Each structure stands twice: as C-alpha cells, then as structure tokens.
C-alpha cells in the first residue's frame, strides 16, 4: 500500500506544478488586462510627462482662471441706440418689468417686455443678434450677468427689432 501512495504522489507532483504555473500565468494575464482596461477607460490627463514641476504647478493654478479667448468685439452702438427685449424666464410676476427698469436706468432702450417661451431659467442670460456681440457683452457686464451668447431659440421676427435679449432667471 505504501508503494501505491508513493507512486500516486510522484504522478500528482508534475500535474500540481503544471496547474500552479498555469494559474500564475492566468493571474498575470488578468492583471495585465485589468491595468490596460483601466488605462483605456480612464479619462486621459492633459499633463505631459515632460512638464517640469514648476510648469505643472503653474498650469494647475491657471486652471481656475478662464482660458485665453480672442478679444470680444467692441460695442459700436451707444447704449441709447441699443434696443433690448426683456423676457421673464423665471415665472415670477413682475421680474421682467423690474429688470427692464434696471436696463433703462443703464441708458438702454427697452423695446418690449414679455414672457419667455419657458419659465425654468435658473440664471439670467444675455443673447445677441449677429453683429451685436459687443453690445450684448456690454449689457451683460453692465448688469453683472455672466452668461452671454448668440441668439438661440428665438427667431429674428420674434425680437420686435431688438438687438439684444435679456432673459431674467431666478
């Protein structure tokens, strides 16, 4: 009986070695797949390995600053010549009228006061017609509004001759 056990142990030893080697190879392959998969799925970083520590720190501190843009066009029309359409975009009664009086106090001509197509605007914004970006940016700066962009969602025929649209948000 002892001879049989010894013989079985000798036969089992090579298979155990083969199984252990195969398991180790499979573990290494799995680790490689996880690392490569994570690298492919992860968001790529903008940092380049060639950056020095000082340049990387400067880039991190500048990340909170707005990126460099081309200079905004200057306003060509005087404030009194710019017609503003004021729309209530928050649903509160009288919000557009109050904003229209602020616009008029700044010297702009208020063309019309009405309700916006939606009443779920959380922030006020200024939109401008083509060719009046400077006037739109100046109005936004005068009123302390940070969202400025080209006319979106309104047709020129809906503007009643206005150059700029102010949508009053919450």
Structure commentary:
- This protein has about 170 residues and is α/β, with parallel strands linked by helices.
- It has two domains: about 1-40; about 80-170, Alpha-Beta Plaits (2-Layer Sandwich), CATH 3.30.70.
- The chain has helices at about 1-40, 55-60, 95-105, 135-145; strands spanning about 85-90, 110-115, 125-130, 150, 165-170.
- Strand 1, helix 3 (about 95-105) and strand 2 (about 110-115) form a beta-alpha-beta unit.
- It is rod-shaped and about 95 Å long.
In short:
The protein is of the alpha/beta class and 170 residues long. It has two domains: 1-40; 79-168, Alpha-Beta Plaits.
Layout of helices and strands, plus pairs?
Elements lengths: L1 H40 L11 H10 L20 E6 L6 H11 L3 E7 L9 E4 L4 H11 L4 E3 L13 E5 L2
Parallel strand pairs: 1-2, 1-5, 3-4
Antiparallel strand pairs: 3-5
């Amino acid at each position: 009986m002892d001879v049989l056990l010894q013989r079985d142990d000798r036969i089992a030893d090579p298979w155990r070695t083969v199984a252990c080697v195969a398991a180790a190879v499979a573990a290494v392959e799995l680790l490689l797949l996880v690392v490569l998969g994570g690298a492919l799925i992860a968001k790529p970083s903008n940092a380049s390995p060639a950056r020095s520590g000082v340049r990387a720190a400067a880039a991190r501190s500048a990340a909170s600053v707005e990126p460099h843009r081309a200079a905004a066009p200057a306003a060509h029309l005087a404030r009194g010549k710019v017609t503003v359409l004021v729309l209530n975009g928050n649903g509160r009664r009288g919000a557009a009228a109050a904003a229209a009086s602020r616009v008029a106090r700044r010297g702009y001509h208020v063309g019309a006061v009405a309700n916006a197509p939606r009443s779920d605007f959380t922030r006020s914004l200024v939109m401008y017609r083509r060719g009046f970006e400077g006037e739109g940016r100046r109005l936004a700066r005068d009123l302390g509004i940070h969202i400025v962009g080209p006319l979106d969602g309104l047709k020129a025929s809906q503007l009643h001759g206005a150059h700029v649209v102010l949508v009053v948000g919450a």
